[in-house]
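In practice, a research group might receive sequence data for several interacting partners and want a quick structural hypothesis before committing to experiments. The following worked case mirrors that situation: the sequences arrive first, and a predicted assembly follows.
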Amino acid sequence: MMDAKTDFRFTTKTKPNPDTEIVHGSRCIDWIGGAPRGYGLFRVENRCVPAHRYLYEAIHGPVRRDQVIRHLCNRPSCVNPDHLAVGSHQDNADDREAAGRTYCKLDDRAVTTIVGRALLGHTQKAIATDYGVVPSEVAHIINGRRRANALDPELDRELAKAPPAR
Ligand SMILES: [Zn+2]
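A structural hypothesis for the assembly, expressed as tokens:
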């Protein structure tokens, strides 16, 4: 849960955006802190968590690991609580498709599997062959996950324990 100090720190990294559409009665509140890949990251207790997930859980309580926090406004940088809703990974993929912003032909599950296999010592070449992509894309996914402390807190913990990739 957020204490007053954390609450203040979070708030200083947000800014209402008057140029956005009204969704559920209000406009977007943008995350102006770090946001690799468009999703805001908030550092708390020495780790980075997705800002919108952090906020949603602070308000509504813990969200199951197999669920994602969706942006009803389709703006990943938004942290307006009224624009966040819990959903499945499939909902999120559907949202992205609907918004025409599918950024990768590999879905979230594939990305998680790829990172997991890399941790198990599978070569990037072998993984790439299985997924029909080039090894550099696999490297990009693995490094991206690591760098972004990406959208999967449980995986982050595994990565933190794991030896360097390759
Ligand atoms: Zn929004």
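Before designing any experiment, note the following. The CA atoms of residues 7 and 128 lie 42 Å apart. The longest helix spans residues 135-148.
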